[in-house]
């Protein structure tokens, strides 16, 4: 674990894997709840956790340098279910990459329980992990100029759902009508780090 100063009152804590970042994020949230960590924001990413608004970042950095990454947190009890039609334009390409049929892609994907590792890219977009490494897929060589809202997509080790129309280079395997970001909802984001997610096939999947 490595803690790097960011400005006057923040630290970027680096670890060696996404699983460790998730565990560290959960640990910092717990410390803040208990009152043993005073911090304004805790922001997880692929292999880092940013702590912003620390009163004494140097002291915490010294503590973290000799600390061990905490064990993985217990999983939340209820999973968010996302209905999905496995009708994406890249479904056949992903099937070929995996060496299976398109129907089998849907079965494997829907049979996996995912967890939100971190959020970013766009409001409401979660980077979901859960598929074994053998199912990693490359991004498209040429990104699309517009990916529709609700597109269910794969890239590298992650699954994601586009919360709004935007450019994107992920492989599109399905679509959902689930609203990922709604500013009138509390909280506005359906997904947050640590949320369990299951995709439920609908239609002809």
TrEMBL record:
<dbReference type="InterPro" id="IPR010016">
    <property type="entry name" value="PxpB"/>
</dbReference>
<dbReference type="Pfam" id="PF02682">
    <property type="entry name" value="CT_C_D"/>
</dbReference>
<dbReference type="InterPro" id="IPR029000">
    <property type="entry name" value="Cyclophilin-like_dom_sf"/>
</dbReference>
<keyword id="KW-0547">Nucleotide-binding</keyword>
<keyword id="KW-0067">ATP-binding</keyword>
<protein>
    <submittedName>
        <fullName>Allophanate hydrolase</fullName>
    </submittedName>
</protein>
<dbReference type="InterPro" id="IPR003833">
    <property type="entry name" value="CT_C_D"/>
</dbReference>
<feature type="domain" description="Carboxyltransferase">
    <location>
        <begin position="1"/>
        <end position="191"/>
    </location>
</feature>
<dbReference type="GO" id="GO:0016787">
    <property type="term" value="F:hydrolase activity"/>
</dbReference>
<dbReference type="GO" id="GO:0005524">
    <property type="term" value="F:ATP binding"/>
</dbReference>
<keyword id="KW-0378">Hydrolase</keyword>
